[in-house]
Design a protein that fits this description.
CATH superfamily of one domain in chain A: P-loop containing nucleotide triphosphate hydrolases
Low-confidence stretches of chain A: 1-40
Low-confidence stretches of chain B: 1-18
Distance between the termini of chain A: 30 Å
Mean pLDDT of chain B: 87
Mean pLDDT of chain A: 86
Strand order of the largest sheet of chain A: 8-9-10-3-11-12
Radius of gyration of chain A: 19 Å
Distance between the termini of chain B: 63 Å
Bound molecules: adenosine-5'-triphosphate, magnesium ion
CATH architecture of chain B: Orthogonal Bundle
Largest interface: A-B, 31 and 22 residues
CATH class of chain B: Mainly Alpha
Number of helices of chain A: 12
Oligomer: heterodimer
Strand content of chain B: under 5%
Number of helices of chain B: 9
Number of strands of chain B: 0
CATH topology of chain B: MetI-like fold
Helix content of chain B: over 70%
CATH topology of one domain in chain A: Rossmann fold
C-alpha cells in the first residue's frame, strides 16, 4: 500500500505535466525513490490529450492535457462553469469532445482504429471501453422504480451477465460497505439524500470500474447529510484500488483524500500539485484568488 | 314497414304479459356487442404495439426511421378515421388489395389510435429525466437495455392514464366500422331502428348503456394498473 502510493507520486512527477514537476522538495525526493522495476505500471489509466469541448460558441474546455494514474486520487476544484463537470462527462461518454483524444487503459475512447486510422467510435466501441469507468452524480439518479437491491444489482445482471444470486451477493456486499444493507427493499423515494447518494456509490462500485468519477457528490445534500457521504468516499479512497476523480467544492475533503489537486479555470488546468502545496503555497494568482473566496465562504472549518 | 308492424305486434301477441321491448332488442345488440368487443381487443393490441413502434421510432437516433415514423404518425393523426376506414374498404380494393371488412376495420382503428398512442409513448419517454439515461450509460447499459430496464418501466406509468383514455376513445371509435358493413353493436342498432322505428328511443338508450357497460370497467382497470405501477413513488 505505502509502496504503491509512493510510486504514484513518482509517476506524477516523471510523467505528469510541467506544472506538476514544479513541486516541493519532498516530492523530488519521492522521484528519486520511485523504483524503476514498476515502470510498466507508470502508464496512466486515463489520458486526455488536447481535449476541447464547445457548446455552440461557448468553448468550455480548451486543449486540456490531463493524466490520471491507476489508483490515483485526484480532486478537481475550480469556479462554477470552469468545465469540471464537462471533463468528467467526456470520460463517461455522456458528452462528445469537439477535438482531442481520450485514452482509457491504453485504448482510445472516442476513436477507434480502422486500418491504422482513427475514426469516430461507434456505440459498440464505446460500450467496450466505457466499462472501466464509473460515475457518481450530483443528483444521484437512482432508478425510482427499482428497490435498493435492484438498483445495485440490475447492471451486474444485465451488463456483466452475472447470475441473479451472484449479482445480489455482490450488491449486498457493496451496500454493506456504504452502510445501506438494512434498506434493501426500500425505494429511493423513501430515502434521505445522503442515503440515496450512498446507494448510488454502491451502484457504481458494484461494476468494479478502474476509474471512478464523483461529480460534486455532496452538493445536492442538506448540510447535515454531507458528512456521511464524504466518510463513505474516504473509506473507498483509502482502499486505494481505483483511480478516482473527485470534483468537489469541499476543500478540506479534497485535502484529506486527494493525492493531487487540479485547479480548473475557464476550461484550462491552471495549476496542479500535492494538496499541501496547493492549499498552503498556491502559485498562481487565480488559485490564490479562488481559495481566498473559499475561506470567506466559511469553508475553513 | 311490414317488418316493423309485425315485430311490434308480436311483442303484444306473445302472451298474457307483453314481452318487454328491451327483451326484443337486447339479444340482437348483444350479438353486436361481441363483434364490438372483438374489434376493440384486436385493434387495442395492434394499436398498442404500433404506439410503441411509432413512439420509439420518432425518437430514434437514425434519421430515416425518425422521418418515416414521423410522417406516418402525423398523417394518420391529421386525417379523419372515417375517411381512412373508407379508403381501406372502398379505395384499396380498386388498387388491387381487397381486405375483409373486419380486417379493414381493425387496421383503420389500430393505425389511427396507434398514431395517437405513439404520441403518448413519445411524450412519456421524453418526460423521463435525462439523468436516468445518463445513470444507465454510466453503468454501461446498451441503448436497448437503457430503454427496456430504465426508461420504459418509468414511462409506462406516465402513459397509463392517457392509454386508458385512448382505450375508451377506441371503444367509441369502433362504432364507425358499422359504416363498412361490420355488424357491430351500432350496426345492429341501426338495423333494428329501420325495422322498428317506434322503438328508436329504447334501442339507442340501451345502446348507450351497453357502451358504458363495456367502457366503465376499462376505466376501472386503468386506475388499478396505475396504482400497481406507482410503486416507489411518493
Ligand atoms: N449541455 C450543455 N449545453 C450547453 N452548455 C453547457 C452544457 N453543459 C455545460 N455547459 C456550459 O459549459 C460550461 C462549463 O460547465 P461545467 O458544468 O463543466 O462547469 P463546472 O465547472 O462543472 O461548474 P459547476 O461548479 O457549477 O458545476 C458552463 O458555462 C455551462 O453553461
Ligand atoms: Mg459541475
Amino acid at each position: 500500500m505505502r509502496r504503491l502510493k509512493r510510486n504514484r507520486v513518482g509517476h506524477l512527477i516523471s510523467k505528469g505535466s510541467e506544472r506538476v514537476s514544479e513541486m516541493t522538495e519532498n516530492n523530488h525526493v519521492a522521484v528519486a525513490e520511485a523504483p524503476q522495476s514498476n515502470q510498466e505500471q507508470t502508464e496512466p489509466i486515463v489520458r486526455y490529450r488536447k481535449v476541447s469541448k464547445s457548446f455552440g460558441d461557448n468553448q468550455v474546455l480548451k486543449e486540456v492535457d490531463f493524466d490520471l494514474y491507476p489508483g490515483e486520487r485526484v480532486a478537481v476544484i475550480g469556479p462554477s462553469g470552469s468545465g469540471k463537470t464537462t471533463m468528467a462527462r467526456l470520460l463517461m461518454t455522456l458528452e462528445k469532445p469537439t477535438s482531442g483524444t481520450i485514452e482509457v487503459d491504453g485504448r482510445q475512447l472516442w476513436h477507434k482504429e480502422v486500418k491504422g486510422k482513427l475514426v469516430p467510435a461507434d456505440e459498440k466501441h464505446l460500450h467496450e471501453v466505457r466499462g472501466d469507468i464509473g460515475m457518481v452524480f450530483q443528483h444521484f439518479h437512482l432508478f425510482p422504480h427499482m428497490n435498493i437491491l435492484k438498483n445495485v444489482s440490475v447492471a451486474p445482471i444485465k451488463v456483466l451477465g452475472l447470475s441473479k444470486e451472484e449479482a445480489e451477493e455482490r450488491a449486498k456486499t457493496m451496500l454493506d460497505k456504504v452502510g445501506m444493507s438494512d434498506k434493501l427493499e426500500a425505494y429511493p423515494a423513501n430515502l434521505s439524500g445522503g442515503q440515496q447518494q450512498r446507494v448510488a456509490i454502491a451502484r457504481a462500485l458494484v461494476m468494479r470500474p478502474k476509474v471512478m468519477l464523483f461529480d460534486e457528490p455532496t452538493s445536492a445534500l442538506d448540510p447535515e447529510l454531507v458528512g456521511e457521504v464524504l466518510d463513505v468516499i474516504k473509506e473507498i479512497a483509502a482502499e486505494g484500488e481505483m483511480a478516482m476523480m473527485l470534483i468537489t467544492h469541499e476543500m478540506s475533503f479534497a485535502r484529506d483524500v486527494a493525492d493531487r489537486i487540479v485547479f480548473f479555470d475557464e476550461g484550462r488546468i491552471i495549476e496542479q500539485g500535492r494538496p499541501e502545496q496547493i492549499f498552503t503555497a498556491p502559485k498562481t494568482d487565480r488559485l490564490q484568488e479562488f481559495l481566498k473566496r473559499f475561506e470567506l465562504n466559511g469553508s475553513s472549518s | 314497414m311490414f317488418l316493423r308492424t309485425s315485430l311490434y305486434y308480436q311483442a303484444f301477441d306473445g302472451g298474457v304479459i307483453p314481452i318487454s321491448v328491451y327483451a326484443q332488442i337486447f339479444p340482437q345488440l348483444l350479438e353486436g356487442a361481441f363483434v364490438t368487443i372483438q374489434l376493440l381487443i384486436l385493434s387495442a393490441i395492434l394499436g398498442f404495439l404500433l404506439s410503441f413502434l411509432g413512439g420509439i421510432g420518432r425518437l430514434s437516433r437514425i434519421d430515416p426511421i425518425r422521418w418515416i415514423s414521423g410522417f406516418f404518425v402525423e398523417f394518420l393523426r391529421g386525417t379523419s378515421l372515417l375517411v381512412q376506414l373508407f379508403w381501406l374498404f372502398y379505395a384499396l380494393p380498386l388498387l388491387g388489395i381487397k381486405l375483409a371488412p373486419g380486417l379493414a376495420g381493425i387496421l383503420a382503428l389500430s393505425l389511427n389510435y396507434g398514431a395517437y398512442g405513439s404520441e403518448v409513448v413519445r411524450g412519456a419517454i421524453q418526460s423521463i429525466p435525462k439523468g436516468q439515461t445518463e445513470a444507465a450509460i454510466a453503468l454501461n447499459m446498451t441503448p436497448r437495455q437503457q430503454m427496456w430496464h430504465v426508461i420504459l418501466p418509468q414511462a409506462f406509468r406516465t402513459m397509463l392514464p392517457s392509454f386508458g383514455n385512448l382505450f375508451i376513445e377506441l371503444l367509441k371509435g369502433t362504432a364507425l366500422v358499422s359504416l363498412i358493413t361490420i355488424p357491430d353493436m351500432t350496426f345492429e342498432a341501426s338495423a333494428m331502428r329501420t325495422n322498428i322505428e317506434a322503438n328508436t328511443p329504447e334501442i339507442f338508450t340501451l345502446l348507450l348503456l351497453m357502451y358504458f357497460v363495456i367502457g366503465y370497467p376499462l376505466t376501472l382497470a386503468t386506475r388499478w394498473l396505475e396504482r400497481r405501477f406507482s410503486v416507489g413513488r411518493l
